[in-house]
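Case study: Sulfur compound chelating protein SoxZ.
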Amino acid sequence: MAIGAGILRVPKEAKKGEIVKVQMVITHPMEPGTRKDPQTGQLIPAHHLTKLELFFNNKLVSVIDMGGGVSANPFIGITLKVEESGIVKISYEDNKGGKWEKTAEISVV
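Here is what the predicted structure looks like once written out:
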């Protein structure tokens, strides 16, 4: 998978008022900028996610500030109380200007 590719998982259906799990895995090297290349001895440049935002029906629900201390290919889990059907959107960016977003729909039954 390419850098920034991700898999977003949410339940397709939920009951009104139910708390659901929003789960995401993001393909990213998460280099902190402090490690040396074993072959050259040079520092590997920093390349990591800096921010992740969770929206539900275009309303900002959560912000996570990230940095080089987060492991490669991070798994993110957030709970969300669902009162109505809607779209979950996760947007995220890295320190080199990369920006991505994923969306998924939840239906209240």
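For the exam, be able to explain this: The chain has one domain: 5-33+42-108.
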